Amino acid sequence: xxxxxxxEFETRLKAMxxxxxxxxxxxxxxxxxxxxxxxxxxxxxxxxxxxxxxHHNLLLAQQRRELAEVEHALGKIADGTYGICEKxxxxxPVERLRAEPHTRYCIEHARAAES
Length: 115
Hints:
Elements: H1 6-36, H2 43-79, H3 94-99, H4 107-114
Helix pairs in contact: 1-2
């Protein structure tokens, strides 16, 4: 099994976190603009604004969840538990970490958690 280069993953996770924070900031600005929209002339405009607002809120929630996972992974690097499955306590293969650096689980337990 290949050994984990913690610096590689820390760098990737920090970059992911920065991108997610930027995305969150942009979504919050766009959502504020949608909410501030006060020139609603008809039901179609109202429906479009509501749809945009719902879409932005869903994206924002997803980005915040992903940022929380990235921050959790960075905490695991700091405390020396990165790359260890939180269910089985077995090492997570480096290939899986490269595919999803903020994963908490090996593939077997990730599938079980999704069910």
